[in-house]
Design a protein that fits this description.
- This protein is mostly beta strands.
- It has one domain: Beta Barrel (Porin).
- It contains 4 helices and 16 strands.
- Strands 1-2-3-4-5-6-7-8-9-10-11-12-13-14-15-16 form a 16-stranded antiparallel barrel.
- α2 packs across α3.
- The protein is globular.
- It starts with a helix and ends with a strand.
């Protein structure tokens, strides 16, 4: 009874399921053009410019910033009538294809939906020893230029068309039937997801240096990692990001008070839910400290609602409190800390429960083509409500990002996972994985 209840709630909420692993998800941003190998700290009013926010940051404050890189699709359209119209209106279009293969210590039991083994609850490589087309990702946007002190409007839409990662990003109330049409009533392997779609406006006279307002579905300001393949450090995600919100639907406003402080406030329908009976007013908040000439930044973000499990809709409403810190030791070595605490009340057969953790990142940039990244994480799922298994998870991941040309990313990585309390991986408390990821930008 409990297993089916939590699975239904999680699938409806667009996040990985809190049940015995069955190899399926339930209820998981530098501007995407151009992207450096890895920027160690989100830098804008959304908490992360990779998700399309156009607030000024440390890089944008430099004199004469380089123009955005144009990739194959935009170059191909440049000499056409459509390309001319888009350019005149400030509209850009770009995307990428992200694919991976992983080798795992998970057992190959031959049973569907994961006959090659299950890495679950590790995403986005939950299908062990298997090739995955993680993302075909398309972005079309009309950006804002906040250096111009004038009222502006814009918009953005992001699409996964399709990709296995979308199994964890599809939200309640928006094509969520894709989460029950696959093998054994699970999600299809390659869903389609309109990950973001919002209108935005820049109001230069509202707040110290202006306010940007978004209305629609937008990426969360919580957690350091992001969903977009080109902007995350590894193909596999941290537990902290994976089991907290990916997106919100509502209104989000960020105000640059001065060169150091930025604040954000908003209201949403919940965490990972669209327009649906499973809606509940949710406050979104953020404050960020980022001195213009400083080497450190800090950010606090929250998502706060009435954290009562909705049994009628089988949907989890929960609160999240997030803290991020970054420090640049040298031009080559940088550090990020990401921590969060989340809780919910009155879950059937569980009661009140919580999940929390901390993730450490070290980035070392060898040159403009090669970067090494180390991630070390601890994550506690006190009752197993989020991951399906209670206990303390520890994971360590090391990998490199190699860019032989600006449109190609090669990312090999190795990862070790352990649950100190439960034999998560088919009777084993340990999991070893090695993955190779290839991203082509177009």
């Amino acid at each position: 009874m409990l297993t089916s209840l939590i699975m239904t709630a999680a699938l409806a909420g667009g996040q990985p399921p809190s049940v015995t692993p069955i190899g399926q998800p339930a209820a998981l941003p530098a501007n995407p053009r151009p992207v450096v190998i890895q920027d160690p700290m989100p830098k804008d009013g959304n908490g992360d410019k990779k998700n399309g926010d156009d607030k000024k940051d440390e890089e944008e404050k430099k004199d004469d910033p380089p123009p955005p890189t144009k990739y194959f699709l935009e170059k191909s359209l440049a000499e056409t009538r459509l390309g001319e119209i888009m350019s005149n209106r400030g509209i850009t279009i770009y995307g990428w294809t992200d694919m991976s293969f992983n080798a795992s210590s998970a057992k190959k039991d031959g049973a569907p939906p994961a006959p090659t083994g299950r890495n679950f609850p590790v995403f986005m490589i939950d299908q062990a020893n298997q090739f995955l087309l993680n993302q075909n990702y398309l972005v079309v946007e009309k950006t804002l230029d906040t250096s111009k002190k004038e009222v502006q409007w814009g918009w953005r839409t992001d699409w996964v068309i399709p990709g296995s990662d979308a199994r964890t990003s599809v939200i309640r109330g928006l094509w969520s039937d894709q989460l029950t049409k696959g093998t054994n009533g699970g999600p299809i392997l390659y869903p389609i997801d309109p990950y973001q779609f919002y209108a935005q406006a820049f109001l230069p006279d509202l707040g110290g240096q202006g306010t940007t307002v978004k209305v629609g579905r937008f990426a969360t300001h919580l957690e350091y990692e992001v969903f977009q393949g080109v902007d995350r450090p590894f193909v596999s995600m941290s537990y902290l990001f994976q089991y907290n919100p990916f997106t919100h639907t509502g209104v989000w406003a960020t105000t640059q008070l001065n060169d150091t402080w930025l604040v954000g406030n908003g209201v949403a329908t919940g965490n990972d839910t669209f327009i649906d009976p499973a809606n509940r007013a949710t406050y979104l908040g953020m404050i960020k400290w980022a001195p213009k000439e400083g080497k450190s930044t800090a950010q606090v973000g929250v998502s706060i609602t009435n954290p009562q499990y909705n049994a009628a809709e089988a949907f989890p409403f929960y609160n999240v409190y997030n803290f991020q810190f970054s420090h640049k030791f040298t031009d080559k070595l940088q550090y990020v800390l990401d921590t969060a605490f989340s809780h919910i009340q009155n879950v059937p057969n569980i009661g009140n429960t919580n999940w929390y953790g901390a993730v450490n990142y070290l980035f070392y940039t060898h040159n403009d083509k090669l970067q090494s990244i180390l991630r070390a994480e601890v994550f506690e799922d006190t009752s197993g409500f989020r991951t399906g298994f209670k206990g303390l998870y520890t994971e360590v991941t090391y990998g490199v990002t190699y860019k032989p040309v600006n449109w190609l990313y090669v990312r090999p990585s190795v990862r070790y996972d352990n649950n100190a309390n439960t034999a998560v991986w088919e009777g084993n408390q340990n999991l070893f994985t090695a993955a190779i990821e290839l991203i082509t930008r177009w």
